[in-house]
Automatic annotation (TrEMBL):
Residues annotated as domain ParB-like N-terminal: 11-100
Domain of life of the organism encoding this protein: Bacteria
Matches recorded under Gene3D superfamilies: 3.90.1530.30
Cited Pfam families: ParB_N (PF02195)
Source species of the chain: Rhodobacter capsulatus
Name the UniProt record assigns to this protein: Chromosome partitioning protein ParB
Length: 277
């Protein structure tokens, strides 16, 4: 079909000619679409959707919430651009990369998208191996092949270490935990979902039960773990101690020395109270 469209330009696309693939990288949130619809009524659309030509129709690549928001507002057409993707894998890669560049992603969304990016990379580069297993390149030595770490860092400001942590979080979470986390406060807190992902499937289920009970039995994953292991909920003092303890434990020696010097008088006074000096 001759659409008269040039890749990279914006065009008005009839909503009734756009098909949405079932296998989407990002979950659809009806409440988010309704909220977006109200915003778009006032300020209009800032980022056109992305589609692939498919005969006399179009397949959505990126922009499902924008598409549904236009439907809610009763619009007949939506601004869009034609994708360069030639295959389903390239379209998925394009969808994931666009979503990763958007600010409203939760920590859970971002972990899922970075995992999706890894999966797409594996399928597009079946001969690439690292340590005996297929993976996406995360080091500068592979920049000439794909430049994964560099490209992602430029788009969303994440380090290679952060990317690897996010992928590990997604693979560590059980499918049930992923489903139950959607829409929760914990989904936006990487520390929370990381702590959850490090637990066994049985513990993940118990923790999610505690977080989602009405009223909640535990306010955080740490609270839930304390209840499971010690049978008591930590006090506010214990929570502060654990938070500071984890932060100090993660410091390198140089940074730790700076912290000690900055609080030298209090550190010495504390050691004297305890009879250490």
């Amino acid at each position: 079909m001759d659409t008269g469209m040039t890749t990279g330009n914006y065009f008005e696309i009839p909503l009734d000619r756009i098909d949405v693939p079932e296998d989407r990288a990002r979950n659809f949130d009806p409440m988010a679409a309704s909220a977006l619809a109200a915003i778009l009524k006032v300020q209009g659309i800032m980022h056109p959707i992305r589609v692939r030509a498919d005969g006399d129709r179009f397949r959505l690549v990126a922009g499902l919430h924008r598409l549904r928001a236009f439907e809610i507002n009763g619009m007949a057409e939506i601004p869009g651009t034609i994708s360069n993707a030639r295959t389903d894998e390239e379209a998925r890669l394009e969808e994931v990369m666009e979503n990763l560049g958007r600010n409203e992603l939760t920590a859970l969304d971002r972990a899922q998208h970075l995992y999706e990016l890894k999966v797409v990379w594996d399928r597009m580069h079946p001969d690439f191996a690292n340590g005996g297993g297929k993976t996406f390149p995360t080091g500068d030595e592979k920049a000439q092949i794909f430049g994964f770490a560099t490209e992602v860092a430029e788009k969303i400001g994440m380090s290679k270490r952060s990317i690897n942590i996010a992928v590990k979080i997604w693979t560590g979470l059980t499918p049930d935990s992923r489903r139950r986390l959607v829409g929760t406060k914990a989904a936006s807190n990487q520390s929370e979902i990381k702590a959850l992902s490090e637990q066994s499937p049985v513990r993940q289920e118990r923790i999610m039960d505690m977080l989602l009970s009405d009223p909640p039995i535990a306010a955080s994953v740490a609270d839930a773990l304390m209840l499971i292991e010690a049978g008591v909920r930590p006090s506010e003092v214990e929570k502060r101690y654990q938070a500071v303890h984890r932060a100090i434990e993660a410091l390198d020696d140089h940074t730790l020395d700076r912290v000690v010097l900055a609080h030298e008088e209090r550190m010495i006074a504390s050691l004297r109270r305890q009879g250490k000096i």
